[in-house]
Amino acid sequence: MTTPAPAPKKDPMKSFRGIMAGTLVLEAVVVALALPVVAKLGGGIGTGVGYLVLGLLVALIGTCGLLKRPWAVWVIAVLHVVMVVSWVWLTALGVIGVLFSLVWVYLLWLRRDVAKRMAEGRLPSQQPS
Q1: Does residue 75 contact residue 63 with C-beta atoms inside 8 Å?
Q2: Where are the domains of the chain?
Q3: How far apart, in whole angstroms, are the C-alpha atoms of residue 129 and residue 126?
């Protein structure tokens, strides 16, 4: 009689990558909502500000595919720095950058806490059944 194979261990960071991807998509939607503001107040979509918003939109969605990479957090940080600095050209985009930067600081703090608990073996999925 053979013994059943043990269940694969759960990776808490995999679910955390899902949360990060969801946050990036939500952020892309909010940045896309800045396009009417650019059309009305920023001189139009065909200006530099319009191209900045479109570039950020594409970069945010594209970053979702890079979340497995260890340097993805740095890409996200650079995108937020660009958004906050864009306050000079479009205040709405700068405000979005500041708000989502605060969200990302909280998410990264949560990720660090999960990694610490995982190293200590205190996660519920690590407890014997």
Answers
A1: yes
A2: 15-118
A3: 9
**Cα–Cα dist 123/34, whole Å:** 40
Q: What is the rounded distance in angstroms from the CA atom of residue 61 to the CA atom of residue 29?
A: 10
Q: What is the pTM of this model?
A: 0.82
For the stretch 16-75, pLDDT in tens is 889 999 999 999 999 999 899 888 877 788 888 899 999 999 999 999 999 989 899 999
Single-letter amino acid code for the residue at 105: V
Count, residues in the chain? 129
Closest CA to 34 of 88, 96, 111: 96
Query: The tokens of 60 are what?
Result: 């945010």
Q: Would you say 85 and 48 are in contact if contact means Cβ atoms under 8 Å apart? A: no
Q: For residue 120, what pLDDT is reported?
A: 80
Task: List Cβ neighbours of 67 (8 Å cut-off, separation of 6 or more).
Answer: 17, 20, 21
Task: Determine the longest span between alpha carbons in the chain, in angstroms.
Answer: 75
